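> forwarded from #structure-qc
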């Protein structure tokens, strides 16, 4: 099917893919005044299920709250709209993009007289950093672009405007021949990838940056932290200096789009043995076994169609 589907949900109506348009003077186009989520639908045995639907929708509402956007639907209604969009498009596996944005009203910087619109799209989309990358790993670089300082742009909110910074990180990495870039915070500590959270392993202890260091607290991140603890590993949220990227035995990235992707090289340095490490492999195995239905969903992470 590729990067499209038949219908997109827009403000309570299912419209044709080609007809899903907004006004060129919509506030979001000029000022990035929108919040969104990335969610996945997986084939779980002979059924399909949305992974951590309720947590994603909760974060969507929290992001909107930060920017004083009152969503004209309840969380339950948004959840049902997501499921309806998947059903009408007859999707078995998909990437889902709910978006809340300021529409056409006034073009001044204050958005309060602009309507709050909601759209939900879903389509088939493979692993963000490549299927081969899941097994063989990827090469990343430390970006010259930092994440914003605290109390400048809210990092806990998944807002459209935040991703201008991510675009710079991603484009720079690609131009330098890397699959992804790793951003540092304003003080030079490890933050995250352009669209992923980061974990590193040193002497069988797993480290990840704390939420206070300009990262988005990812839902896949929290999933992986739960899995790691259940597998018996110690997980520490700490401030991590840049050089830990070069001393790590293993590094992996997590995110809805990236899932769990190993990192085998940072800049010119090989990570560990230069291949996917055993802890990364163990996390992947448990993560995908839950999504494929071969391990029980003991945390109620799956919402079936």
């Amino acid at each position: 099917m590729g990067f499209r589907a038949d219908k997109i949900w827009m403000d309570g109506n299912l419209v044709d893919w080609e007809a899903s348009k907004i006004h060129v003077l919509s506030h979001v186009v000029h000022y990035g005044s929108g919040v969104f989520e990335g969610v996945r639908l997986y084939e779980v045995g002979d059924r399909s299920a949305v992974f951590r639907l309720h947590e994603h929708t909760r974060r969507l509402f929290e992001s909107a709250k930060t920017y004083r956007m009152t969503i004209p639907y309840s969380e339950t209604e948004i959840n049902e709209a997501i499921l309806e969009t998947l059903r009408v498009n007859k999707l078995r596996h998909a990437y889902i993009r709910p978006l809340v944005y300021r529409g056409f009203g006034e073009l001044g910087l204050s958005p309060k007289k602009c309507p709050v619109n909601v759209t939900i799209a879903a389509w088939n989309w493979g692993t963000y950093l490549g299927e081969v990358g899941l097994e063989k790993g990827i090469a990343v670089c430390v970006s010259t672009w930092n994440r914003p300082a605290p109390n400048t742009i809210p990092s806990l909110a998944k807002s459209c405007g935040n991703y201008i910074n991510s675009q710079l990180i991603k484009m720079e990495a690609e131009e330098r021949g890397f699959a992804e870039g790793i951003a540092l915070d304003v003080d030079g500590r490890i933050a995250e990838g352009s669209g992923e959270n980061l974990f590193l392993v040193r002497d069988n202890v797993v480290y990840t940056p704390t939420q206070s260091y300009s990262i988005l607290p990812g839902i896949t991140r929290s999933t992986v932290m739960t899995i790691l603890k259940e597998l018996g590993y110690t997980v520490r949220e700490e401030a991590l200096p840049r050089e830990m990227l070069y001393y790590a035995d293993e590094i992996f990235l997590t995110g809805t789009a990236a899932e769990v992707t190993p990192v085998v090289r940072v800049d010119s340095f090989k990570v560990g043995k230069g291949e996917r490490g055993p802890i990364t492999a163990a996390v992947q195995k448990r993560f995908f076994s839950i999504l494929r239905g071969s391990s029980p969903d003991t945390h109620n992470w799956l919402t079936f169609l």
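QC bot note: Helices lie at 27-31, 53-66, 75-88, 131-136, 163-175, 219-230, 244-247, 278-292. The two ends are 20 Å apart (CA to CA).
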